[in-house]
Q: What sequence folds into this?
């Protein structure tokens, strides 16, 4: 996926590095600001995207919206949450920071292309304020981003536009994630989508980080990168490696946050592990309606394999069950007290000061016969692009979103993927290969993302409380799952 961006990304990094060095060398009387210097240099970034390489939206020549303020519903402003602030549209100037500048340039290019002014409006991520705007028939927002659970909720109440009904929005283009376009429709209606237009959903993808020093200390430990490349990175291989490093460091006979473990994790690892092993929560029938297929012999086997590790408190440490914070577990990982750390991509930002090298791995396969790796976003926080029903100018909506998507694929994605993650996060070429695998194998299982009757979350509750009888727990939940699914189907069929 990202290999096509390497040339652009390398130039982007080099030019923004020049911006930073020129800005830092400028004295008080030298004239010019960092933003001024960056303006000239970073403009060259977009010019460097050649005719052959550039992605372009199919917008009629001469399209001009005469300075229209295109209002975007976005996540809370920087400072509201240190992790889930809007990083895609809230940049107000060039600062020399790669992702900020790429987001700013992308937005500026679209403003100039269509003669609009993109205006980010910070709002609650659940879409409740967008819902109120539609209820009052207000054009407060032209489009926006809402977390996945929020989309699942407000789309059932008729507040979101079926994106297939936006006439100028071309969802077949490569800047829209085609797995999202394929997986997320219900009865052929698509209310949310992801793609190059944003980076917020990528930050929520669950992955495995590993401590390269701890792995190298044991000569019997296989090279996890070789396992990944050979499709031998399975649950069994992962568990066997996790059993090799645990240690009661202080010798008090108790395992707690001061000791060393094979795995540091959060309870949602079980859901991501099930999905990664090819367990499906739902399938689509001939009419495109979801049906529940979650419970099976394979589901039980995967659950039991994982909980063999997750429930052994001498081998693994759960920060959710212990009441700690993710930062506490990141500190343990940085202190070489965890071979593996299940986390999300945003955690990599906090590990740049880690002395020991670490690597990035995809979620394990069920076995070597599994066709491919699979990954998922976190529905609590993953940002989905949406269009509110109260907006009447759908032609303009489609052109602006496609223009943003194309320019993002030219500029924002290379900056995030090649530079932000690979340049500052991953520390080896093998991790780069893992990133390619992870981003190209995102799938969007409606049963997990919509959480019908707690279908998507009940295994998290079980792991957090060390309960292992998945058969009886699912049986108790099944009536409420089916009821919630049917209610959702009924709601969508009204549209």
A:
């Amino acid at each position: 996926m990202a290999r096509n961006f390497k040339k652009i990304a390398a130039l982007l990094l080099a030019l923004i590095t020049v911006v930073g060095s020129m800005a830092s060398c400028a004295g008080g009387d030298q004239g010019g600001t960092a933003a001024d210097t960056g303006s000239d240099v970073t403009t060259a970034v977009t010019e460097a995207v050649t005719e052959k390489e550039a992605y372009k939206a199919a917008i009629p020549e001469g399209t001009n919206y005469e300075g229209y303020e295109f209002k975007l519903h976005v996540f809370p402003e920087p400072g509201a949450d240190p992790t889930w602030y809007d990083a895609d549209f809230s940049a107000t100037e060039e600062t020399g920071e790669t992702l900020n500048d790429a987001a700013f340039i992308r937005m500026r290019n679209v403003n100039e292309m269509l003669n609009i002014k993109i205006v980010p409006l910070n709002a609650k991520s659940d879409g409740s304020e967008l819902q109120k705007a539609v209820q009052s028939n207000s054009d407060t927002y032209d489009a926006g981003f809402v977390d996945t659970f929020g989309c699942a909720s407000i789309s059932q109440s008729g507040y979101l536009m079926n994106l297939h009904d936006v006439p100028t929005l071309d969802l077949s283009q490569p800047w829209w994630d085609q797995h999202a376009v394929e997986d997320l429709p219900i009865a052929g209606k698509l209310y949310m989508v992801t793609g190059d237009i944003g980076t917020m959903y990528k930050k929520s993808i669950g992955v495995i980080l590993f401590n390269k020093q701890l792995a190298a200390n044991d000569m019997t430990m296989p090279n996890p990168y070789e396992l990944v490349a050979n499709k031998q990175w399975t649950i069994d291989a992962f568990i066997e490696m996790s059993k090799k490093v645990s240690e009661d460091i202080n010798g008090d006979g108790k395992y707690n946050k001061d000791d060393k473990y094979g795995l540091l994790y959060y309870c949602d690892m079980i859901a991501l592990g099930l999905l990664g092993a090819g367990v499906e929560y739902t399938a689509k029938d001939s009419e495109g309606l979801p049906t529940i297929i979650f419970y099976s012999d394979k589901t039980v086997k995967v659950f039991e394999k994982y909980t063999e590790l997750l429930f052994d408190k001498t081998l693994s440490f759960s920060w959710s069950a212990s009441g700690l914070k993710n930062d506490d577990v990141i500190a343990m990982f940085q202190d070489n007290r965890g071979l593996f750390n299940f986390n999300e991509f945003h955690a990599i930002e906090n590990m740049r000061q880690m002395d020991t090298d670490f690597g990035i791995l995809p979620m394990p396969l069920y076995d070597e016969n599994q066709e491919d790796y699979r990954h998922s976003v976190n529905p609590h926080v993953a940002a989905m692009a949406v269009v509110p029903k109260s907006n009447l100018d759908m032609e303009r909506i489609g052109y602006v979103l496609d223009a943003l998507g194309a320019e993002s694929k030219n500029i924002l994605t290379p900056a995030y993927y090649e530079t932000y993650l690979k340049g500052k996060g991953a520390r080896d070429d093998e991790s780069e290969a893992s990133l390619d695998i992870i981003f190209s194998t995102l799938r969007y299982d409606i049963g997990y993302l919509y959480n019908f009757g707690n279908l998507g979350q009940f295994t998290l509750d079980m792991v957090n409380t060390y309960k292992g009888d998945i058969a009886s727990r699912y049986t108790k939940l099944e009536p409420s799952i089916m009821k919630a699914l049917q209610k959702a189907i009924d709601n969508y069929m009204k549209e």
User: Anything to note?
Assistant: The two ends are 35 Å apart (CA to CA).
